[in-house]
């Protein structure tokens, strides 16, 4: 199908201008700023690429970043900058091309990250809970994995001689990053200690081991290929690479015994022995010392488990880089390859903030991801780099009530023409943001780690918020249905794109189309 974007651009411009003129801007002071924003958006839309082939592709995945998360984060970022908020745009929301993706798994109406990311990376939808395997696999049954492996965009990029990278603020063995490189009948098999005995004896390999052995495993699957392995890997999850032995602890270990592996293998040492040109780092100082111009291979594991929430990074024992810092470093390293690169960047803790019922943490991590995207935009040539920004799924996160324009998005609902919080039928105030299910209300003051909620009993249903500061970092929104953690939701998620091939993003699409757009741009599969 050929797309004539030049023919469409005039109508698109007219539509955007008409939309801008139709807006009601509440104050004269807002006029200039608002129309400047509208003009910038129009210009971005008109800069749509007419090319389909890219040298580089960067895929950003905001784990759990549904449309309501985008809206709330957009408003929060605007309000943090001193504006009313609603008129603001996250960096990637000005990209010229947008579509909606249907996120269901083959066997699940509301999906999980393993099935959704496998779809994005392979072009094939699959079951919930399985990684890099098609729907013929039985979750948790090692014997069903062989013969059902799919090939991923990262693997194809390696075969084509491109540089490759995987970044996540979650454990690097977690479902989303793992789906770029691993094949596992269960997403939870992050190291050998997580696997049942029949899976180990049946020949299945844990996810951490697959990452370190990526190069020989890929060469064994496809006859005659010669790849050099993933060039940049950064994230959390150090425990899955270290033996269960205190002598193997990292200098900033938080636990008495940091490692989980029960096979006595130290995969970090194995990686260092395999790649003499590689640089392994575990803290901010080591990260800062990396000179991208002199680095061809980088492995960073910055936390025993997941990396910190963006709001909580200052509390890390030895310090860890932000998502935007990791993105910048990765692009600098991968850019050393004249053939181009494929990079996947996951903001994994958006999802975890929502699961914990903390809009503050989910939204601040979303804002940091928008900064990482902007960093990528500024570092790359739009004529040769396709940048895609999407989510694997959404959450049961709502924006409700009738708050007036500019009302603090984390605050209580204050209606149009009022200065005091609105009251529900029970006579108590309520917040704009809320969750359908989860652990429920928390008033933890200045706490910045959303996971603190898990040490407490559920607190569901209505609470009197009259004296509660709902904009504080430690506030967790009310939730109706009591669960051990808040759940994913099943509605469509947005895909934003710019660069060669992004013009294929139109309408409502199946999530696995993302792989085919990447393939179209990089020419990964020979025609």
UniProtKB/TrEMBL annotation:
Keywords assigned: Phosphoprotein, Signal
Gene3D superfamilies from the UniProt entry: Alkaline Phosphatase, subunit A
Presence of the UniProt keyword NAD in the record: no
Entries under InterPro entries matching the protein: Alkaline_phosphatase, Alkaline_phosphatase_core_sf
Signal peptide: 1-22
Family that this chain belongs to: Belongs to the alkaline phosphatase family.
PANTHER family hit by this protein: ALKALINE PHOSPHATASE (PTHR11596)
Name this protein carries in UniProt: Alkaline phosphatase
The organism of origin for this protein: Corallincola luteus
């Amino acid at each position: 199908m050929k797309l004539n974007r030049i023919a469409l651009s005039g109508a698109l411009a007219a539509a955007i201008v008409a939309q801008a003129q139709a807006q009601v801007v509440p104050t004269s002071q807002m006029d200039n700023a608002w129309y400047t924003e509208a003009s910038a958006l129009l210009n971005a839309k008109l800069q749509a690429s007419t090319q389909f082939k890219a040298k580089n592709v960067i895929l950003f995945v905001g784990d759990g970043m549904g449309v309501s998360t985008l809206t709330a984060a957009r408003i929060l970022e605007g309000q943090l900058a001193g504006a009313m908020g609603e008129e603001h745009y996250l960096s990637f929301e000005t990209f010229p091309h947008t579509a909606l993706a249907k996120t269901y798994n083959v066997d699940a109406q509301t999906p999980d990250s393993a099935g959704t990311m496998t779809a994005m990376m392979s072009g094939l939808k699959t079951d919930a809970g399985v990684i890099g395997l098609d729907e013929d696999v039985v979750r948790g049954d090692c014997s069903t994995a062989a013969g059902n492996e799919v090939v991923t965009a990262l693997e194809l990029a390696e075969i084509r001689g491109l540089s490759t990278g995987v970044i996540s603020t979650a454990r690097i063995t977690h479902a989303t990053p793992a789906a770029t490189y691993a094949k596992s009948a269960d997403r939870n098999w992050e190291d050998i200690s997580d696997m049942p005995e029949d899976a180990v004896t049946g020949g299945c390999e844990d996810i951490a081991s697959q990452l370190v052995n990526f190069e020989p495993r890929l060469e064994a699957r496809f006859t005659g290929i010669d790849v050099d392995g993933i060039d940049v890997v950064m994230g959390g999850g150090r425990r899955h690479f270290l033996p269960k032995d205190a002598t193997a602890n990292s200098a900033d270990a938080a636990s008495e015994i940091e490692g989980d592996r029960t096979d006595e293998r130290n995969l970090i040492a194995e990686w260092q022995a395999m790649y003499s040109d590689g640089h392994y780092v575990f803290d901010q100082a080591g990260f800062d010392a990396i000179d991208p111009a002199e680095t061809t291979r980088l492995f960073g594991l910055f936390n025993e488990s997941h990396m910190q929430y963006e709001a909580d990074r200052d509390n890390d024992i030895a310090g860890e880089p932000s998502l935007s810092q990791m993105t910048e470093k990765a692009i600098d390293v991968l850019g050393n390859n004249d053939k181009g690169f494929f990079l996947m960047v996951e903001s994994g803790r958006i999802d975890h903030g929502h699961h914990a019922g903390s809009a503050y943490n989910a939204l601040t991590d979303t804002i940091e991801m928008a900064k990482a995207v902007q960093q990528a935009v500024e570092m790359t040539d739009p004529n040769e780099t396709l940048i895609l920004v999407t989510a694997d799924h959404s959450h049961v996160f709502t924006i409700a009530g009738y708050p007036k324009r500019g009302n603090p998005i984390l605050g209580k609902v204050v209606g149009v023409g009022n200065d005091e919080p609105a009251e529900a039928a029970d006579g108590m105030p309520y917040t704009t943001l809320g969750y359908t299910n989860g652990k429920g209300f928390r008033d933890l003051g200045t706490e910045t780690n959303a996971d603190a909620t898990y040490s407490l009993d559920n607190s569901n249903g209505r609470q009197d918020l009259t004296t509660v500061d709902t904009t504080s970092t430690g506030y967790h929104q009310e939730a109706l249905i009591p669960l051990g953690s808040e759940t994913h939701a099943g509605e469509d998620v947005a895909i934003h794109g710019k660069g060669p091939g992004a013009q294929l993003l139109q309408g409502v699409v199946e999530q696995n189309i993302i792989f085919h757009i990447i393939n179209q741009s990089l020419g990964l599969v020979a025609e």
